């Protein structure tokens, strides 16, 4: 299905079914605690899609841009490399294929909001992975090499500049491949220092990470998500992980 058709259906069905008017949308924007629920609800009304990743990229990009507009999500975050402060928690996150900025929209910002609900905005430093094109080619080669290198250097930077922060390393879709690759590039001390790893829609689902104890890894994979079976078909099951960020954030801060 053509992405604009899909978006038209998505918008008419999603907004009509949730009964969300423009004024209630602006109220939602001011209440971050509701934002996650809103996003999860909206995503439930996606029409069925079943497309190879290579054809789905424009759908994902269009969907992300609509959702970023509706929710006011920040798609780029560089608080670690800006070096302003070392907070109790740091999140370094790698977005999914075809997502914008360095955080994406479908999982990165909702995970940030879920963490901020628990630790407050002052308790969290947010950093997206840079130098990462998030292209289909990168996915097919097992995760973009430059993005993987960048994430490894960001983790090392967090360790040297904020040794007392609790580092949460996160990824969505190809971003999970970036997490696996980055951790394999780290020395044992730095990898073991990582507090928690949270993965959504992981193509390398279940693969052990060197020097990270499996009890510190939280993986969310819907059983019908083909990407978690290392496939290349995008279904709605791959796009609705915003439903699972609250549980992941509670786990990561417990
Ligand atoms: C986006 O970032 C700005 C600056 O850090 C922050 O004030 C704002 O609350 C963020 N918006 C959302 C929706 O997270
Ligand atoms: C980005 O990737 C290029 C090519 O691998 C590398 O030379 C450069 O150092 C990277 N920059 C950052 C900021 O990671
Ligand atoms: C994600 O959240 C939904 C809604 O709460 C739940 O039904 C589903 O089981 C969760 N998925 C996983 C893999 O935990």
From TrEMBL:
One of its GO terms (biological process) is carbohydrate catabolic process. Disulfide bonds join 86-162, 221-228. Its EC number is 3.1.1.74. Keywords: Disulfide bond, Hydrolase, Secreted, Serine esterase, Signal. Gene3D superfamilies: alpha/beta hydrolase. One of its GO terms (cellular component) is extracellular region. InterPro entries: AB_hydrolase_fold, Cutinase/axe, CUTINASE_1, Cutinase_monf. The active site is at 173 (nucleophile), 225, 238 (proton donor/acceptor). The keyword Disulfide bond applies. It catalyses: cutin + H2O = cutin monomers. The keyword Secreted applies. Residues 1-22 form the signal peptide. One of its GO terms (molecular function) is cutinase activity. It is found in: Secreted. It comes from the Eukaryota. SMART domains: Cutinase. Belongs to the cutinase family. Catalyzes the hydrolysis of complex carboxylic polyesters found in the cell wall of plants. Degrades cutin, a macromolecule that forms the structure of the plant cuticle. This is Cutinase. It comes from Talaromyces atroroseus.
């Amino acid at each position: 299905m053509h992405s604009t058709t899909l978006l038209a259906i998505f918008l008419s069905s999603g907004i009509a079914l949730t009964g969300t008017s423009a004024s209630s949308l602006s109220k939602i924007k001011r209440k971050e605690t509701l934002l996650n629920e809103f996003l999860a609800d909206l995503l439930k009304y996606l029409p069925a899609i079943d497309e190879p990743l290579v054809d789905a990229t424009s759908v994902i990009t269009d969907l992300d841009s609509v959702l970023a507009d509706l929710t006011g999500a920040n798609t780029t975050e560089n608080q670690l490399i800006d070096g302003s402060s070392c907070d109790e928690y740091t999140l370094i996150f790698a977005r999914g294929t075809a997502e914008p900025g360095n955080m994406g929209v479908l999982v990165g910002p909702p995970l940030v909001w879920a963490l901020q609900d628990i630790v407050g905005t002052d308790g969290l430093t947010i950093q997206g992975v840079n130098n990462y094109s998030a292209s289909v080619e990168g996915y097919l080669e097992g995760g973009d090499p430059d993005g993987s290198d960048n994430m490894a250097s960001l983790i090392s930077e967090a360790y040297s500049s904020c040794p007392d922060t609790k580092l949460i390393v996160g990824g969505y879709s190809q971003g999970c491949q970036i997490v696996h690759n980055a951790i394999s590039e780290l020395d044992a001390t730095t990898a073991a220092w990582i507090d928690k790893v949270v993965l959504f829609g992981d193509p390398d689902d279940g693969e052990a990470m060197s020097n990270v104890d499996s009890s510190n890894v939280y993986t969310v994979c819907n059983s019908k998500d083909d990407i978690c079976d290392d496939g290349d078909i995008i279904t709605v099951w791959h796009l609705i992980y915003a439903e699972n960020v609250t549980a992941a954030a509670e786990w990561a801060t417990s």
